[in-house]
Automatic annotation (TrEMBL):
Coiled coil: none
EC number, UniProt record: 3.1.2.-
Domain named Thioesterase: residues: 52-127
Protein name: PaaI family thioesterase
InterPro entries tied to this protein: HotDog_dom_sf, PAAI_dom, Thioestr_dom
The organism's place on the tree of life at top rank: Bacteria
GO molecular function: 1,4-dihydroxy-2-naphthoyl-CoA thioesterase activity
Keywords from the UniProt entry: Hydrolase
A Gene Ontology cellular-component term: cytosol
Gene3D superfamilies: Hotdog Thioesterase (3.10.129.10)
Chain segments annotated as transmembrane: none
Length: 159
């Protein structure tokens, strides 16, 4: 699958998720190896106003979303794949005033489950803020029931 198709699918998926719109998340890059999303720094995601550090929940959302959308890098057709399990190990707080990037890759795809791993970083991917592993359930294109999210993503609309 071409990089352009992966980026288009990822952007379509991201634009259908209202909470990601509110957070201002965007697709930074993607190819068959994995996906990178950007979470811009903003006052609305600060967890501690005294230090300006981003709330851990915003980083958790970034990493869950990055892992979930990274499935478009490996699946031949769109499938909704809800999170089964997500583990995040925080290495250190994000530096105030800087955007956070999330990278994720799918390292194993089975008939029922997709296994992902990744990391959050700011300036240097070699100095991660957090590491993540996640598993996502494959529902299959036929068993999805034509829900609103699936139709929105396939038709290219945002929420």
């Amino acid at each position: 699958m071409s990089e352009n198709i992966i980026l288009e699918r990822a952007q379509r998926f991201l634009s259908a998720l209202r909470h990601c719109q509110v957070l201002g998340m965007s697709v930074q890059g993607g190819d068959s190896r994995g996906l990178t999303l950007r979470l811009p720094y903003g006052a609305h995601i600060v967890g501690n106003p005294d230090t300006g550090v981003i709330h851990g929940g915003a980083i958790t959302t970034l990493m869950d979303t990055t892992c979930g959308i990274s499935t478009v890098c490996v699946l031949p057709e769109f499938e909704i794949c809800p999170t089964l399990d997500l583990r995040i190990d925080y290495m250190h707080p994000a530096e105030p005033g800087k955007d956070v990037f999330g990278f994720a890759e799918c390292y194993r795809v089975t008939h029922n489950v997709i296994f992902t791993r990744g990391y959050a970083y700011q300036d240097d991917p070699e100095q991660p803020i957090a590491h993540v592993v996640g598993t996502f359930m494959r529902m299959g294109k036929a068993g999805q029931g034509g829900g609103d999210l699936k139709q929105t993503i396939q038709q290219g609309g945002g929420a």
